[in-house]
Amino acid sequence: MGNEGFTDVRELVNDGLAGNAITSISLFNNKVYATTLSGVFTKELEEFFTYK
Question: pTM of the prediction?
């Protein structure tokens, strides 16, 4: 398959989420909420797109 159609792919800082399957992601009050089977992780929106 490859990455046809993608021009730039970069990994985000995902501290706390490594190894957890994300079941949903939401934005509320300038915070991003990522729900997993082991809990809910939050991150400020302005920090969300921090790249490794």
Answer: 0.70
